[in-house]
Amino acid sequence: MHDTSHITTPMDEDGDHIIVSDDEEEVDDVEVVEPQPSKRKLTSKVWLEMKKMRINGEWKAKCNWCHKVLTAGSGNGIKHLWLHLEICTLKKLNTKGGKTLSQSSLKVCAEEDGQVSMESYTFDQEYARIELGNMLVLHDYPLSMVDHVGFRRFVAALQPLFKLHTRNTIRGDIAGRYKIERKKAIEYMSMIQSRVAVTNNMWASHSKKKEYMAITTHFIDESWMLRNIFMRFIYVPTPHNAKVIAEMLYESSVEWNHDEKLLTVTVDNCNVNNKAVEEIVGKIWKIKLLCEDAHTTETSFWTYLQGIQEGMQVST
């Protein structure tokens, strides 16, 4: 047994300690089969707050409040289900005194003039889940952070309603969010009217065994603001020759809907890029996509960006 006397647990409105369970069974990665219609109905009122389902061949009961999974076999009875409902944290928070959390919570907001205002707050599980993924990406935190005991206790104390998922689920959330934002960016690129400049920067891993390509698009929007969209960061398969690099650049331009708006292609200083530029020019001119006054250049990636910034400063 671990000594838990030093752990402080959240309390409800009457000052009673609320038990926060860390042993909830995660069912994201197991086979779940919904119960089939049965001639025998579930008559106990416990099933108004529980859902019976079969998981990996065994009958389980899932709490409608906290989603905790409990045993529900014919030989287990339902007494333990009633006991769970009596101590369920989320049920207490949602039914205490007939009030819901959204009815009794206020959010403090800072106005532009420095004033502080209060407004009602409704907890949103899905929104909080998205923000968790955004935080992990923004600060480059490891996905394993959601499994850390200290972090889980902190979240439970901060917002007991929030259900933390496994790292695999969070990984899926981040990948799904990336696809959504990427689709928005591609649709935006298809609507811009200006010409675009593409820069390519090659990057090698520490072992020098793998090389990657970073492709960025630069353009002036309708408000005459310089915009930069990071299109792709992709692994370049061997051999790292001019044909492979040129093909990947061209495919990215087509995918991002600016192949017909391409004005300049700027590559990093690299021996193979001399021939890669020739490959790109030949491919683009062959299908007549590059505008008549287009240019291709070979220069330093950072020098090119610096030149754009200096030009914008002079124009303003």
Automatic annotation (TrEMBL):
One of its GO terms (biological process) is regulation of transcription by RNA polymerase II. GO terms for cellular component: nucleus. It comes from the Eukaryota. This is BED-type domain-containing protein.
